């Protein structure tokens, strides 16, 4: 395990630290210091050591970024160039990201504790796929011809909403950046992006690459900082036209309130989840075990759609429990730069302590801890894959989003009971079903209140598949052409035709 012993620089022996090139704010095409001159630390979760000091944006910096974005929107060429030309620039941007895959995966590995090899084969390639998808959509923004009554003709225009504020989380810094920015660029908007304070480094690198690709100055602005200052300044700004946010339900509420109190800007929220994975008696047990392990322990459980509630039908429950414990114990926790590791550290000390506190809640409320439940190293923020049984629906570990490698494993008898249990949550982001019965799959997928339902798979994302939540998991959709809706206004144009022979 990396972190046992340090070199002369204070870094743990054997820990690879990538070169960090960009730590300033990116406003109007330039890297600049914060107006206040303040910086904040971003730390390496493998060791707890400081990776870099990053310029800390607050209201004054957000004002400058919004002004740059507004000027670029009102007077610049980005919203006025053809969708085809925007798409060409976006594809050049994607080419540059592809060319820096190793470096960018290393930044997220060191900043967020993400597995380096998965960053190279999943995170960065998925991000460029997203960017290319919307590059292809940029020249396909269509209105409609309307059959209005009377001596008129009517049609609709879809126009960019203007300046979009984008606030992204720390669990997938690269993918979340492009999930939000790509459709906004395709629509012709300009953006002010606040990356999470825990993981600001790759977003700044992407700003640099965007400029190299030919994205005009002011179109993309990146302002690292804290939610209560930089984030709040974006959501309350009178010259920001919309806000897209991924994060906690609690912060989502604050954003809606701030948007309402300011200029009633449009809001799109992708919030928390407590996703059920429902496994029926006819499932292949070994396949189901591997799927459930992936669903909760992938990315150390720091996934909004993590399958944290696993419901297993009573006929295979005992076998499933036994094999799940064995599978969890074989899931290697280690340095994310080690290709043999299955899981790295939690993103920071706060999240590490939060997960451990939830594990204590589970034990204190009467759930049985079968495996894990402890730190997995003397240094860094590593936690063992953890499985609880004897979990009831009223326990904190069954109702609250933990955002860590903690599985609540429960038993059910009937399809009706499974549906009822799956819906027994304030969230509705995703769900999984494992069964060989087409009838059961169809019935349950139509009954579970969730924005995405996976059948005999999990984490099956694609740029063409809209993604978002029901209930307190938010509203609005990322991915798919539906994602462009939050960056577009619909305008109706009706023209008098007094002499037309056709009405």
From TrEMBL:
InterPro entries: Ald_DH/histidinol_DH, Ald_DH_C, Ald_DH_CS_CYS, Ald_DH_CS_GLU, Ald_DH_N, Aldehyde_DH_dom. Belongs to the aldehyde dehydrogenase family. Keywords: NAD, Oxidoreductase. The active site is at 270. This is Aldehyde dehydrogenase 1. Homotetramer. GO terms for molecular function: aldehyde dehydrogenase [NAD(P)+] activity. It comes from Urochloa decumbens. Residues 32-493 form the Aldehyde dehydrogenase domain. Coiled coil: none annotated. It catalyses: octanal + NADP(+) + H2O = octanoate + NADPH + 2 H(+). Pfam families: Aldedh. It comes from the Eukaryota. The keyword Lipid metabolism does not apply.
């Amino acid at each position: 395990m990396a972190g046992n012993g340090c070199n002369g620089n204070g870094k743990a022996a054997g820990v690879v630290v990538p070169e960090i090139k960009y730590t300033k704010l990116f406003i109007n095409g330039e890297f600049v210091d914060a107006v206040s001159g303040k910086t904040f630390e971003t730390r390496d979760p493998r060791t707890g050591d400081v990776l870099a000091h990053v310029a800390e944006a607050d209201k004054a910096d957000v004002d400058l970024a919004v002004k740059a974005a507004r000027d670029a929107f009102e007077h610049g060429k980005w919203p006025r160039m053809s969708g085809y030309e925007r798409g060409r620039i976006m594809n050049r941007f994607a080419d540059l990201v592809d060319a820096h895959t190793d470096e960018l995966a290393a930044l997220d590995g060191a900043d967020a504790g993400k597995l380096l090899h998965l960053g190279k084969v999943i995170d960065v390639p998925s991000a460029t796929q997203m960017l290319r998808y919307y590059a292809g959509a940029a020249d396909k923004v269509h209105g409609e011809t309307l059959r209005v009554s009377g001596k008129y003709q009517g049609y609709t225009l879809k126009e960019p909403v203007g300046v979009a504020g984008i606030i992204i989380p720390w669990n997938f810094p690269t993918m979340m950046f492009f999930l939000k920015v790509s459709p906004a660029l395709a629509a012709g908007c300009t953006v002010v992006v606040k990356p999470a304070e825990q993981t600001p480094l790759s977003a700044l690198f992407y700003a640099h690459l965007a400029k190299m690709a030919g994205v005009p100055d002011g179109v993309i602005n990146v302002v690292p900082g804290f939610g209560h200052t930089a984030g709040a300044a974006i959501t309350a700004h009178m010259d920001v036209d919309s806000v897209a946010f991924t994060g906690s339900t609690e912060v989502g509420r604050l954003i809606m309130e701030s948007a309402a109190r300011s200029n009633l800007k449009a809001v799109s929220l992708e919030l928390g989840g407590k996703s059920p994975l429902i496994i029926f008696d006819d499932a292949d047990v070994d396949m189901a075990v591997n799927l459930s392990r992936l669903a909760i322990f992938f990315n150390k459980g720091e996934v909004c759609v993590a399958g944290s509630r696993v419901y297993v039908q009573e006929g295979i429950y005992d076998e499933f429990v036994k094999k799940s414990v064995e599978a969890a114990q074989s899931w290697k926790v280690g340095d994310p730069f080690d290709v043999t590791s299955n899981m790295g550290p939690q993103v920071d000390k706060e999240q590490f302590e939060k997960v451990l506190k939830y594990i204590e809640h589970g034990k204190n409320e009467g759930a049985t801890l079968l495996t894990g439940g402890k730190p997995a190293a003397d240094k860094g923020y590593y936690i063992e894959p953890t499985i609880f049984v004897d979990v009831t629906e009223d326990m904190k570990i069954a109702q609250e989003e933990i955002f860590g490698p903690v599985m609540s494993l429960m038993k059910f008898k009937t399809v009706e009971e499974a549906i009822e249990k799956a819906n027994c949550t304030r969230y509705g982001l995703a769900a999984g079903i494992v069964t060989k019965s087409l009838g059961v799959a169809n019935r349950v997928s139509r009954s579970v209140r969730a924005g995405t339902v996976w059948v005999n798979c999990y984490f099956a994302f694609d740029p063409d598949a809209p993604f978002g939540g029901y209930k307190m998991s938010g509203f609005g959709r990322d991915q798919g052409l539906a994602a462009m809706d939050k960056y577009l206004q619909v305008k109706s144009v009706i023209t008098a035709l007094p002499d037309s022979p056709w009405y």
